[in-house]
């Protein structure tokens, strides 16, 4: 039995509370993980996990052993990542979760560069905008827009920020004209964006000195999907206001025209978040640095 690998499997099973999920995250057959845990318990002469048909739980001995395994593995990873040679280089499977719009507009068009730079890395990208339990779901890091909530379990590294831009298709402007002031918005109709938690339409927010002003807009249609929202704007169905980085290619092509450019919006941070109590592997660190570099080059306004 490879005791170190068995320890890694044991820690993974505890963290995701499932033999099958642990096996999937480690790219191993479930039978391999089950056998390794049985051999580890036999070697130690104690039961580490209580297994029922519904759940897993640590025994008192298992809790003590897990704490020591977690510490030893973190220390080993830290030592290995400090070497400049083969051991500390990025490699293995990386699981990242991000919003669909961020994946579509930033990561997927450029991820080939990351894979060329680190040929021993395999990346699995999942897309969502829901809260994610990184440990339970076996995800290495997530990318999210907005102010991160205070957390004792996650580290948030800010990699960029963006503002909001009001736009309309040339066909809309030809028919209805362009608003010149915030007050003019009351004479126009917009595409509404439905907030996920409340289901109500989002107001448009602008900076005014050191404060912000929230402007409700009239809409004839609304959606809770960012791609649909932008597409509706491209079709001339109303004014839209969304993240500047999403609109940039359409503005450059002339498909959308920026409006109310004299007004500023609050900046929204983009952060990469990862577990606080876990050593940051060379692979995760390389990905975070690459995304930060990519955002700097793109320089969304």
From TrEMBL:
Residues 1-59 form the HTH lysR-type domain. It comes from the Bacteria. GO terms for molecular function: DNA-binding transcription factor activity; sequence-specific DNA binding. The keyword Transcription applies. Keywords: DNA-binding, Transcription, Transcription regulation. The keyword DNA-binding applies. One of its GO terms (biological process) is DNA-templated transcription. It holds the Pfam family HTH_1. InterPro entries: LysR-type_TF_proteobact-type, LysR_HTH_N, LysR_subst-bd, WH-like_DNA-bd_sf, WH_DNA-bd_sf. Belongs to the LysR transcriptional regulatory family. This is LysR family transcriptional regulator. It comes from Pseudoduganella aquatica.
């Amino acid at each position: 039995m490879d005791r170190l690998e068995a320890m890694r499997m044991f820690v993974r099973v505890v963290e995701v509370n499932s033999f099958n999920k642990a096996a999937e995250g480690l790219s191993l057959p479930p039978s391999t993980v089950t056998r390794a845990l049985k051999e580890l318990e036999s070697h130690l002469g104690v039961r580490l996990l209580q297994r029922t048909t519904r759940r897993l739980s640590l025994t008192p001995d298992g809790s003590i052993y897990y704490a020591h395994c977690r510490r030893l593995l973190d220390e080993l990873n830290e030592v290995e990542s400090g070497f400049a040679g083969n051991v500390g280089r990025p490699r293995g499977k990386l699981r990242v979760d991000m919003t669909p719009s961020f994946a579509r507009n930033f990561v997927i068009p450029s991820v080939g560069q990351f894979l060329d730079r680190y040929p021993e890395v395999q990346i699995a990208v999942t897309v969502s905008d829901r809260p994610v339990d990184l440990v339970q779901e076996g995800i290495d890091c997530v990318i999210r827009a907005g102010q991160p909530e205070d957390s004792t379990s996650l580290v948030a590294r800010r990699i960029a920020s963006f503002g909001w831009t009001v736009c309309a298709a040339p066909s809309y402007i030809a028919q209805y004209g362009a608003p010149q002031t915030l007050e003019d918005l009351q004479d126009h109709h917009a595409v509404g964006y439905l907030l996920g938690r409340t289901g109500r339409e989002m107001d448009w927010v602008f900076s005014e000195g050191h404060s912000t002003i929230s402007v409700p807009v009239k809409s004839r249609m609304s959606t809770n999907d960012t791609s649909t929202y932008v597409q509706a704007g491209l079709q001339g169905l109303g004014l839209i206001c969304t993240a500047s980085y999403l609109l940039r290619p359409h503005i450059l092509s002339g498909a959308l025209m920026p409006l109310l450019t004299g007004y500023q919006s609050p900046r929204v941070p983009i952060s990469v978040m990862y577990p606080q109590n876990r050593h940051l592997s060379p692979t995760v660190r390389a990905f975070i640095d690459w995304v930060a570099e990519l955002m700097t080059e793109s320089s969304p306004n």
